[in-house]
Each structure stands twice: as C-alpha cells, then as structure tokens.
Design a protein that fits this description.
By secondary structure, the chain is of the alpha/beta class. The chain has two domains: 10-203, 2-enoyl-CoA Hydratase, Chain A, domain 1 (Alpha-Beta Complex); 206-255, no CATH class. The protein is built from ten helices and ten strands. The chain has helices at 35-46, 76-98, 115-122, 147-157, 159-168, 174-180, 192-205, 208-223, 228-241, 244-255, and strands spanning 10-15, 19-25, 54-59, 64-66, 104-108, 111-113, 125-129, 133-135, 172-173, 185-187. It has a six-stranded mixed beta sheet with strand order 1-2-3-5-7-10, with helices on both faces. Helix 1 links the parallel strand 2 (19-25) and strand 3. Helix 1 (35-46) packs parallel to helix 2 (76-98). The protein is globular. 35% of the residues are buried. The model is unreliable at 1-6 (pLDDT under 50).
C-alpha cells in the first residue's frame, strides 16, 4: 500500500429498506482499517438502528473488501505498538459483529486479508464475489492470532483447514474458499450486491423476534453442551410462543397475507 496515500479511511453507512450497509472505505490503502474505522465499526454494530432487519458488511470499490490493519508508515517499536493497538480494536469490532442483535451478512466484494478476513468470518455468513481472494498472512509476520479469532476460523473450516490457511499464508480463490467452508456462497461480481439485498429482504419477511431468538439458539447450541443449552433454547421458544408476533404470524398464514410485524 502506498505510504503517501491520504488517510481518508472511514466506515460509510447506508440504510436500505431492510438493512444497514456498512462499507469499509479506505481506497488509498486497499480498504485497510485505521483505529478510528475499527472503533466506528464496533459502535455501529453494537447499536444498529431499530428500523432495519439485518446488517451488511462490505468493502468500497470492486477490488478490495479489506486488506487488514493499516500499519503503513510505521517502523520498529511504533509498528509493534500500532499492531497491538489494532489487534485490541479488531477484537472489539469482531465481537460487536458476532454479538449484534441483527443477522450480519458479509458481502466479500474483493480481496480479504488478515484482519479484514476476520471481520468477514465474524459475520453470520459470507457471500463472495467470484473474483475475490482471501488469505491470512499473520504467521508470515511472526504473529500468533488471538484465540477468539482462531476459534471463529476453526468453527468455519475445521482445525486442519484452519492450519493450512494460517500456516501457509497462501491466498485462496473464492471458489476454493467455499470448498473450505470459509465462505458460504459465490456469485459473479456484478451480482453480489443484488444477491445480498435479496438475502436481506428474505430476512425481513420473518418475525424479528423469531429471527433474534433462533440466532441466539444456534449460538447457544453450538457453544454449550446439552442439556444446558437445550434448557436455554426452550426458554427462548416459550417466550416466542407467548409473544404477539407468534399470534400475528399464525393469523397472517391463515388469511394468506403478509404478516404485519411490529417495528
């Protein structure tokens, strides 16, 4: 990345009819993440507007989703200090995405490396442009990744494939990433935004309470052993059955009309 590129990085925000779109925008540095961008991303994911039903994370332009932490221009102790600061902010941003009250979809529009790829993996699922390339060069920099980040990759890919990605540092194509479990869907680059918008519209058709509770139930069942997790899921189910949303869903189905979900 050019060291003299202007520091204009920011998270661009767009509200569509159904989704909050967060666009990583730092074109002079391949959409690398500055501390201010990571802090902004964490705030936005932690408190999305109440009138949207999903969150979409993508990159600005057609070439780059995100190239990771912006460490350009730093050397020696300053470089190490910026890396450690960036790691802390990245951990908070990925946690905010993973714990967002809304479903989060990553639209991987281009190259995704390092911390940028970890942001994508923290989302609920990933739709990638066929032209995208994904890679994790941390070990080539002498970095051992943080446990939360490593676990997310292991959950997506399994231990052996995660080792291959991290230990070789070798980038993979979008199609290969799908085979590895790193992305969930690959579409032509020109169709990416439309495909993700269609997904957001599909999410909006479902009851917001049911979406949130089902998302929580999947997380609980994945992270905790049975039967403890099952008991928590049953509590979520009981609350859903007792809700006005459930009554409206059944009534709408009986009347063959779209449900009118409360905001």
């Amino acid at each position: 990345m050019p060291e003299d590129a202007p520091d204009t990085g920011e998270i661009l925000v767009e509200c569509t009819a159904t989704a909050l779109v967060l666009r990583i925008h730092n074109p002079g540095r391949a959409n690398a993440l500055t501390p201010a961008m990571l802090a902004s991303l964490g705030r936005l994911a932690s408190d999305p507007p109440g009138d949207v039903r999903s969150l979409v994370l993508t990159g600005s332009g057609e070439r780059h989703f995100c190239s990771g932490l912006d460490l350009s221009g730093a050397r020696g102790e300053e470089l190490q200090a910026r890396l450690r600061e960036g790691e802390g902010l990245l951990r908070r941003a990925t946690a905010a995405l993973a714990e967002c009250r809304l479903p989060v979809v990553a639209a991987v529009n281009g190259a995704a490396f390092g911390g940028g790829l970890e942001l994508a993996v923290a989302c609920d699922w990933r739709v990638a442009a066929a032209s995208a390339r994904l890679g994790m060069p941390a070990a080539r920099l002498g970095v051992v990744y943080a446990p939360e980040g490593l676990l997310r990759f292991i959950d997506c890919m399994g231990p052996a494939r995660a080792r291959m990605l991290f230990l070789t540092g070798r980038p993979v194509t979008a199609d290969r990433a799908r085979e590895l479990g790193l992305v969930d869907e690959v579409v032509p680059a020109g169709e990416l935004e439309a495909r993700v918008a269609e997904t957001s519209a599909d999410i909006a058709l479902a009851g917001p309470g049911a979406v949130a509770a089902t998302r929580s139930a999947i997380t609980l069942l994945h992270a905790a052993p049975m039967p403890e997790a099952a008991q928590d899921v049953e509590r979520l189910r009981a609350a859903a059955y007792a809700s006005p949303e459930f009554a409206e869903g059944l009534e709408a189905a009986a009347e063959r009309r779209p449900p009118r979900w409360a905001p």
